[in-house]
Amino acid sequence: MFQILNKPVYSFYRLLKATNLRNQHQFLKIAAVSTLQKNGCRSSNQVIFRSSSSTTKSAKKLFTPGPLGTSTSTKEAMLRDLGSRDVAFINCVANIRQKLLDIAGVTKENYTTIPVQGSGTYSVEAVIQSTVPRDNGKVLILENGAYGKRMATICDALNIPRLLLSFDEGQPVDVAKVEDTLRKDSTFTLVSIVHCETSCGIINPVVEVGKTVKKFLKDGSYFVDAMSSFGAVPLDFQAGSIDYMVSSANKCLEGVPGFSYVIARTEKLLQCEGFSRCLSLDLIDQYNNLEKSGQFRFTPPTHAMLAFQQAIEEFEQEGGLEGRAARYMKNRSILKEGMRKLGFQELLTQPDQPSYIITSFHYPNDPNFDFKTFYQKLNERDLVIYPGKVINKDCFRIGTIGQIFPEDVEKLLVVIKEVCKEMDISLPITT
Prior knowledge:
- The chain is an alpha/beta fold.
- The chain folds into 3 domains: 2-57, no CATH class; 76-316, Aspartate Aminotransferase, domain 2, CATH 3.40.640; 320-422, Aspartate Aminotransferase, domain 1.
- The protein contains 14 helices and 16 strands.
């Protein structure tokens, strides 16, 4: 917050555009004469500019799976207040719903977008609790990490019968085993899978699995959690026969946290009337209200959606999925080569893994390495990485999505080298 003669001024800094996102903290020269005059100032000599500590804090670079860094212009889009029934906001919601279908490569005639207040897990639970029949419903969960396991936890909390088909962490889902399972039991009403399992970074073969699901379950539904991949990793809805997909605003489309969304095959969704176990996560009721009035049933995340609308515009300016993926792949390429030179070993070794979302690295086999210290020293330099989430291996994770650019990754590598030297870790690392 800035003050002029102790009077708040709220409209100073639309100085950076989407074309200059990386310099978002090298700004704040001040305002127009008209703004000063409105506050009773005849000349700039009368003006005292004072910034709060919150605006002078340096920005952290988030090398994480989420929440992610966002552009200045995306954050600035939240400086506007709109009512939930404001025509401008209703148009914003409609625009977002259509844009997400466009990004998914599907049509409004066959699919619909349903935004859901809350994090990505809210949408995962909304799909499961809204689409599994109350009678004779059963879920097959294909799991090779923490987020597949979370689906099982959701089913258990809802008392929904489920089978957890587990695969080794760091290994993709085995389509042959899925086929064998479905051949033995074709009574599942929903099959679910995580596209990019960010607990380790693995990309699962969702299209091949989808074809298998439709081969054995004629009336069953196929659900893909594409939380950390949608908008950057190709996902063919038609080839994979995907009925439901979920993602979050604050992932590869680079919005801010506050809501997630479901892209659903409309015909399938409408067959689920009456299945919902709760009110707030009832996808069918949410869909019906959006179609009828263009409005959410309950208080919507207005500011987060305004930010997301801006983020989608910037996504398109970057070249859509291809352009965003190209930047993320460049980030990942620099990270991979730099960490290799330092001696760090990756958890995933499959050469065919297009894992440019997040990369897991083994802890160095060095007595001086302590992850907590390593993390803290990087954090003190405004570089944030993530601990590992693999059960039986000591590793840490570095994400290459969000507002991360090649020069950011190069800086991270320089600082990692500095930190290793401070911790007396021998380089290059040997195992």
